[in-house]
Specification:
With 197 residues, the protein is α+β, with helices and mostly antiparallel strands. It is 35% helix and 22% strand.
């Protein structure tokens, strides 16, 4: 005979994981929308994700400016140094009051067949600067803003806004937004490392 208490545990854990994923994806979209209000061509921006209830307990005057229903609130941090992003992230350690973090970063997206062209452009030395220039000047490139978010419980979310292009002078460019938790695994790993004790 099965233990009646053991049955619902798995669906409850699954529901809890789905809720955490949905909540973090909502925060990633919120960060994307916030950053998008300032337009394109921005440096990387880092956000601490703090429990909304904790923030309101310390600063109740923020209640009318925050989504009190959201479990996490993004808090913009000081600008990152203009050095290698990986090096900058490796130097960050969040206090326990920070439940997660998110990074908004503009990138260049290339079609799958472009890899061999870029390797050729980088030369035998694999010169990173030449590689970046080749990617930025590739005729089939698409500019994008990636928001990657992680939380201490291991939940991950990514939102990528592909910069729209106008078909003609009269039309407004329309950005396309793509969401998937595995869009940037290396960046997500680097962000997760900032939350480790």
């Amino acid at each position: 005979m099965e233990d009646p208490d053991s049955g619902p545990a798995e669906p409850a854990a699954h529901d809890s994981a789905n809720t955490a994923t949905a909540n973090l994806a909502t925060v990633a979209r919120e960060v994307d929308e916030f950053v998008a209000t300032a337009g394109w061509d921005q440096p990387p921006q880092l956000f601490a994700l703090v429990p909304t209830a904790d923030l309101l307990a310390k600063q109740p005057e923020l209640a009318d400016r925050l989504d009190v229903e959201s479990p996490l609130t993004p808090v913009a941090q000081e600008s990152l140094p203009e050095s290698d992003l990986g090096d900058s992230l490796a130097k960050i350690a969040w206090p326990e009051t920070v439940e997660g973090c998110a990074l908004a970063h503009e990138i260049v997206v290339l079609p799958p067949g472009a890899e061999s062209e870029l390797e050729e452009a980088a030369g035998e030395s694999g010169d990173v600067e030449r590689l970046q220039r080749a990617a930025a000047n590739h005729p089939q490139r698409t500019e994008a803003r990636l928001v990657a978010a992680v939380s201490r419980d291991g939940t991950r979310a990514c939102v990528m806004r592909l910069r729209g292009k106008s078909e003609n002078a009269e039309s407004e460019p329309v950005d396309e937004v793509v969401e998937h938790p595995d869009l940037a695994p290396n960046l997500l790993d680097a962000l997760a490392a900032t939350l480790e004790p």
